[in-house]
Design goal:
The structure is a homotetramer of 288-residue chains.
Chain A (H helix, E strand, L loop, with lengths): L7 E9 L4 H11 L4 E9 L4 E9 L7 H13 L5 E6 L5 E6 L4 H11 L6 E7 L5 H6 L4 E3 L7 H14 L4 E4 L8 H6 L4 E5 L11 H8 L3 E8 L9 E8 L6 H24 L3 E4 L2 E4 L1
Parallel strand pairs in A: 5-6, 5-8, 6-7, 8-9
Antiparallel strand pairs in A: 1-3, 1-4, 2-3, 9-10, 10-11, 12-13
Helix pairs in contact in A: 3-8
């Protein structure tokens, strides 16, 4: 949770576990005058796999920004069969919001955006209904109404994908977007679409989880943010929270209490994404 | 947490504990054709004091609305030395917001208001700074800029009190309002001013609680909503929540995490207030 | 959560919702000199069903203990088509423990029993393994070793049922008992067998839930206490708790953390059972 | 939370932050054939101080166990002005328990000890009352009755210190021990005495925190484990948890609910201590 600075680089790495990885990377950074701000590693022992997030200051770093990727690959990455992502804290990620009719997640996101809590750009909001256009207008964010029917789905998703590419979107947030994305859409944005599901997954997959929770008589409800994959509600989980309920809570009460969880869990996932703190591997997340 | 209907009456009662109170009240309602929707009682045994909240349907109730108070006093209330409040679910309470510069609580409240989650009127927002006027404008709520200095405090508070009375305000919410209300102000609105304090009271009373929490090295932080009394941060507590923190969290992280608690805790207190679920007695609350 | 006294009666009631139930019961108690200590009611509005728990002092109550059931039936119960249970706080419930090899829930229960936290008798412990006999011995509680194989299951369960009847057991607690009870067994003790399942049901039903949770990559784990019914892990839920986990937690860590939840959740359910605070209706619980 | 192996070394380090520390240490381990299992670091940015915990396998490590301290000091530690502790996972820490009359923490600890959840030795239990001797006997742990009065305190504490030294105790756990240790005692065991305080510190310091919590009308209660220092209840906090309470909870209920927190929080602190996961610096803890 340490505060990131404005001129840093962040590497997210994973590879088969081997001796000497930490030494190799910390030596690479030290020799090239990169002051390490934060380094975290994790070894998944049952599958012998290594994960790391390292952040260092670029100010005195001798390798120029645009060559870091190349140098790192040659000197370290290829040797250890690493897969990695390189991010720069100075560059604000570009996030698109997909919405339907509900406002609680949208306002929560926009408040954080406007107040400067997050370093992010929101170049556009896409809605399959027109209801939330007025809110987008109030915040001066372009709103695109892309209604979707069974018949028009493929064409409309193509339009959405075009919009996202045109605006160089880094990741998409489904802020209680009530449409299932097609496999083709998901394949375009692997681990780049974050959804909020209104239950503690894997319980109550699919539609109307609060109704199902009420029927089952659970004493806790939850919310789950996860990356969207081809399998509905089965993608890698980023954040989950729960809260207590009782027999006194009607379905309407569950929905009201659940909204508090939903917006908190979704915004926490977005924050982690913006900090480049999440690595995905085999349908699970490492959240540094 | 049961859903309240549109045409109900709610009695909040307390009195010295005696035999027969529940029987007397339920008999009174039954005889006059009032269908009880919800009845909750509590006896504080160490002080032998009785508390009750009862809600009933008015549709077939034989006593007219405007005479309930009188009949109840004569037939029941006086006999048992009761203190009580009578509310009608059909009448939306009128809430005033006091703000300074921070937006997280304000947006959280306005989203709930706009989406119809709450049955409430917000006739005005008062700010000691002008910063949040733009938000009030966006939501079409009149904003009054009432700056306060040591020299102008008495006069400006008088102006605020006049505004609140003019708009027939039922209760005031301090949504991270960074001014301490004078005793005179508080006396005008007993148990009608709800504040959010950014710590788990009674820990870290006063200014900069996140800084103090960081210095002390706590592993949890919290937020507390309470009624404002003459003693700073000492009023009856309505809602408290906590969340985990670690050595990795800087003061900035505590502030960010704390905001999630603050808005949730404050909005929960407002919800309880709107449902007429809170009774105050000797600096503690009964939250039905 | 109010403290119950030593000479009180408790009625747990449910029936179709009708006008006048609260008035009828409170009048019945008042007229017969029964001082009400605690009264809680709940109406499940979607099915129009009424639930109540009422506790009153017996000291001056004019109806003798052994006739209360009869009088209540005649004067109130039959009229409103009520189902009810009558309990006396002075009588300690008799609880049997079923165990296998794990000790965490057993010790937690025995510590509360020995320290006087609970008013309960534990006349016997039944184990399908002999491992925990030494602990039972230490606490001077008779231990019955009843090993179970597929072939012997029916006969051994018959033996268990005989033991439970012989010792006039009021309810059974499965303290991480690793055998599935047959339908016949369950039918003998409806809503009288409390189990602890090591997941937040309905997620991860069945065997090895921590392994499944680890595979799914959840960020919370949980535990659930519930009444045992013919459907495995599908009975009415009494208590649930969850705790946070992360990618750093191995399966072994989940098991360790989960044990904390299991013993707390199971002991909380036992406490509620001992206080006669739980009513079951259509596979859900009302926990007063 | 990673599982530690049986033949590993653990270094807990802190020093002024400087470039190259991670590189130096990981290089030292790599060159000497020490396979790193876990490495975590933290920089406290406002005071520019560096903290690290690193664990590596000893199997192929070329420096013999008994010389690691010397080599590390010469090659790394002195150069960076480090303070460090070296631990070996193969060696079970020796823990003494101090108790008075309450059993909940004691049983919780002993259950974990007996079941093998913890790798620890418990050579003795010291009680200022004799009440818990029977439990110690049951678990075959020597019990020393050391009653303390104002007059005998100095002498009796000297006896305790002698016992602890004789049994080569690594750390002391006050399992609801109702005596305040003298400064002299504390000075003998810096950061080696773990206490459980039954409130969310810094709220409700001192005696009878549940009574104070009830009086204040809080909606959460908590428990705090911390290292004992000369200032009562002011030492570095290791673990804190909270739980919700309501107006229905009497002081007796708070005590009952609080016990659940106390034993969980204390046992979690002991676990972290046993894993050598806690570093203390300037009255705060780094919990890796």
């Amino acid at each position: 949770m340490s505060t990131t600075k404005n001129n840093t680089a962040i590497l997210l790495i994973h590879c088969p576990d081997q001796k000497g990885i930490v030494a190799a990377i910390s030596d690479f950074l030290l020799k090239n005058n990169g002051n390490v701000l934060d380094i975290e590693q994790h070894v998944e022992k049952d599958i012998n796999h290594f994960f790391m997030r390292v952040e260092w200051e670029l100010t005195d770093f001798v390798i120029p920004r645009e060559k870091i990727e190349d140098y790192f690959a040659t000197l370290i990455g290829n040797k250890y069969q690493m897969q990695w992502q390189l991010h720069f804290s100075g560059k604000k990620p570009r996030m698109a919001l997909f919405v339907s009719k509900m406002t609680h997640c949208l306002y929560d996101i926009l408040q954080r955006y406007m107040s400067g809590e997050w370093a992010v750009e929101i170049p556009l909001i896409i809605g399959n209904h027109e209801n939330l256009k007025a809110i987008a207008d109030r915040f001066d964010i372009p709103f695109h109404h892309v209604p979707i029917t069974k018949a028009t789905k493929a064409a409309q998703e193509a339009k959405e994908i075009a919009l996202l590419k045109e605006h160089q979107i880094d990741f998409v947030v489904l802020a209680r977007y009530m449409q299932i994305l097609s496999d083709d859409f998901v394949r375009e944005f692997p681990n780049q679409v974050i959804n909020i599901h209104h239950s503690f997954l894997p319980a109550f997959i699919g539609a109307r989880p609060y109704h199902a929770a009420h029927r089952r008589g659970v004493k806790i409800i939850g919310a789950t943010s996860h990356y969207v994959t081809a399998d509905l509600d089965e993608g890698p989980i980023i954040v989950q929270h729960t809260t207590s309920v009782s027999h006194k809570d009607s379905i309407k009460d569950l929905i009201r209490k659940g909204k508090n969880l939903e917006k908190m869990v979704l915004s926490e996932a977005i924050y982690l994404q913006l900090q480049h703190k999440v690595l995905t591997y085999k349908n699970r997340t490492i959240v540094f």
